[in-house]
Amino acid sequence: MCTGHLIEKWLAAIFVFMSTEQTGPTAPTLDQARRQIARYGLAADPRAVLVATRLMAAGALLDRASEVHFARFGLSTGRYRLLADLEDCGGEKSPSRLARSLGVSRATVTGLVNGLEREGLVARRASAEDGRGAVVVLTARGDRRLRDMAADHFARLQALVGALSAEERDVFLDLLGRITGGVGALTAD
Predict the structure, then answer these.
(1) Residue 158's CB: how many other CB atoms inside 10 A?
(2) Once rounded to an integer, what is the mean pLDDT over residues 137-157?
(3) Domain-located, residue 144
(4) Distance of CA 170 to CAs 18, 97, 143, Å?
(5) What average pLDDT score do residues 82-95 get?
(6) What is the pLDDT of residue 156?
(7) Residue 11 in domain
(8) Does one domain contain both 87 and 58?
(9) How far apart are CA 134 and CA 116, in angstroms?
(10) Which end is more exposed in the chain, N or C (fewer Cβ atoms within 10 Å of the end residue's Cβ)?
(11) How many Cα atoms sit within 13 Å of 65 on the Cβ side?
(12) Number of structural domains, the chain?
């Protein structure tokens, strides 16, 4: 099946899904989107508005579920992402590079590192490059935490998207890429 046909199939399925209450009792509906657009006298596409608001609702739901998920390992989503980023780049990175790769502020990285350092999962040390700056280093204990949680963590991630075929996952990744490419529409001045 060609990708274009799959995308059309997926979009049709998403629109059917989004016009029902399948994402929870408080999820926005197509009728609500239509009413709000009419109330303000706008020419917006109600389905586009519904897709965007449902994505926001799904994002909030996934954020809450992620916190519950990572709490079982004694972590938060942010702490896990920092540990995984360190592991992925060979075990050490400067705080500014961590902030860039995680998409957060330096202050957020400082808070995450402080907590992880108290638990012995990361350490700070002088940079080998210039000796002045500091780098954050994944400790053996941090590496062990990631290894200990890996089987359960990845099994749950796979189960999260288990209802999708491999081909549907590829299409979904493409659609997500397109949508995240439009995030600037929300943040632009």
Answers:
(1) 9
(2) 98
(3) yes
(4) 21, 29, 30
(5) 95
(6) 98
(7) yes
(8) no
(9) 16
(10) C
(11) 10
(12) 2
Residues 96 and 123 occupy one common structural domain: yes
Which residues lie below 8 Å from residue 83, measured CB to CB, with a gap of 6+? 75, 116, 121, 122, 138, 142, 145, 146
Region of 120 on the Ramachandran plot (φ > 0 left; ψ -120 to 50 alpha; else beta):
left
What is the spatial distance between Cα 161 and Cα 146, in angstroms, rounded to a whole number?
22
Both tokens of residue 58?
A: 């799904």
**27: domain range?**
1-69
Instruction: Round to whole Å and give the CA distance between 11 and 8.
Output: 5
With respect to residue 180, please indicate whether it lies within any of the assigned structural domains.
Answer: no
Cβ contact 109:160 at 8 Å: no
- Assigned token pair, 79: 């702490």
The answer to whether 28 and 53 have CB atoms below 8 angstroms apart is yes
Neighbouring residues of 61: CB distance < 8 A, sequence distance ≥ 6: 23, 24
Whether residue 18 has pLDDT greater than 50: no
What is the rounded average pLDDT of the residues 41-68?
A: 94
Q: How many helices (H) and strands (E) does the chain have?
A: 9, 3
Q: Provide the token pair at 2.
A: 């060609």
What the block records as the tokens of 32 is 């609500």
